[in-house]
Amino acid sequence: MPFFCIHCRSEIDPAFKACPFCGEAVTDFLRRYLEQPIDGKYQILAQLGVGGMGEVYKVLHIHLNAVRVIKLMRSAIANDAGAHDRFLREARLATKIQHPNVAALFDFSTLDDGSRYMVWEFIEGTNLHELIESRGPLSPRYAATLAVQALRGLDAVHRAGIVHRDVSPENLMITRDAGDVDGDERVKIIDLGIAKGSDATEEQTKTGMFVGKWKYCSPEHLGMLEPGERIDGRADIYSFGIVLYEMLAGVPPFQADTPHSYLMMHASERPKPMRQVNPTVPDAPKLEALIFRALEKNREHRFRTAREFADELERILPTLPETGGAARIPIATEVTDEATRVSVPLLEPETVLTKRMITLPEPPPPEPRRSPVGAIVVILVVIGAGALAVFNRHRDAPVVPQPKPITATVVVPISRGRVAVNAFPWGEITAVKNIETGQSVEIGPNLVTPTPLDLAPGRYEITLRNPQFPTAITKSIEVTPDRDATLDVQFSDPANAPVPDFGASQ
Known about the structure:
Number of helices: 13
Shape: globular
Distance between the termini: 12 Å
Helix content: 25-40%
C-alpha cells in the first residue's frame, strides 16, 4: 500500500526519515499508525510536534467524530523504572480538573509496544507567545483580563494537587467557544505533561535534572529549597509573573544565553522596572507591584495562591490603561573614530522596518583618570544593552554647553498585513516582489505552504513552484495594514485529484 506524507500528501517511501518534498518528519509511530487508528479509535490527522520525550498528534475519535490531541510518551522512556506508576498517577490527577480555563484530559492508555499516551482536548486558537509576537506588548487591561483567566485555571490545577512546572506563553492558549467567532476570548492552560503531584518526591531533587524552560523557571525549580521542602503552586505563580511581565513589556524580565546565567538571575537578580526595559509601557504602578510580588525570590513573600493573585488583578482591572506599548527596539553599536552611528539588526525575518534620524545630546565627559577610549566602550556597551532606557537617562541629564550632536539611526516597525498562502497539493514560495517598487522581498529558504507572510502595505507578486509540475505560478495580491488576506494557488484541480486511502475503507 502506498505511503503518503501527513503534511503535503505526496507519495513517499515509508523508509524515509523525512518527506523529501516538504521536510515533515516520518517517525516509527507515524509509519505504523498513519493508516490505521490508534487503539482502534484515533485516526491521525496531523503531526503537531516531535521531541525527545515523544510525539504530539491531532487525531479524530472515529466513533465520536471529535477532534482530540494525543501526546505520546516514547516506549524507551515509558519503560524506565517507575515511569508507569508516575504516568498513571499524573493522569489520574489530571482527570480531577474540570475547569473552563484548563484543557481537559479525556483518556490515557498503553500501546502494545509499551508506548503510553494521553488524549487531550484539541483547542483551536493561538498561544500567548504567538499573540505577543504578532501584536507586540499588550495593554495593561487586556493583559490583566487574560491573566485572571489563566490564574483561575492554575488555581484549579493546584487544587487538584498538581504543580504545572512549565507555565510559559507557549502553554497558554487563547480561543473562543466553538461556533462563536465574535464571543469573548478564553484562556486555556495546556501541557500538563511534566506536571507533578505536590505530594510526590521531586525528580529534580533526586536526579538533578531540570525539566521546563529556563526563561520561566522559579528558584524552586532550580533546587533552591531547604532540606525537606517541596515545590508547590507558588513556583507556578513565579513563572506566571514572568509571563505577565512579558505580556506588558514585550520581553521577559530575565534574558540570558546560558542555563548558568538564568540560574544566577532567578536566584539573586531583581527584575528591572518595566519602563526601564521598555519606556513605552503605559504607567500602571499597581499592576507592576502585583507582578513584582509574584516575582519575589522568597516564595513566602509571593501570593499564597493563584486565586489570591487573580482576585487582586480583578480589583484593579477597571483602573488599568487600555492601550499597550510598542515593541522594544534593540540597538547595536560598534566602536569607530567617526561620530557614533547606531545600526540595528533585523528583529525577525518577517519584520518590516522604516528609519528616521534623531539627534541625541552627547553624554557627560568621563570621570578624571579614566581612559577616554574605555569610557566610550562603556557607553556603547550600555547603549547596546539598555536601548531606549539609556537614551531617556541622557535626555533628562543636565545639558552640556554646546553639545556635539550624535547621529543615530533608529529602526521603527510599521504596520503590516498578513497573507496566508495556500497551494494544492502544495507549493514552495520562491519569490516575493513589490509591484510598485520592483524590489524583491527577502524570504527564508524552504518556505512551504501552507504558510503566512507578513508584508508592508502594497501590491505584491508571489511566485510558487512544485517540482511535480513543470511551470511555476505567479499571482498578485494587495496587502493592507493590520489585515489578513488569503492567496490560493492550484497546481492541479482538487476535484480531479486522486484521494489516498488512509485505511477508512478497511
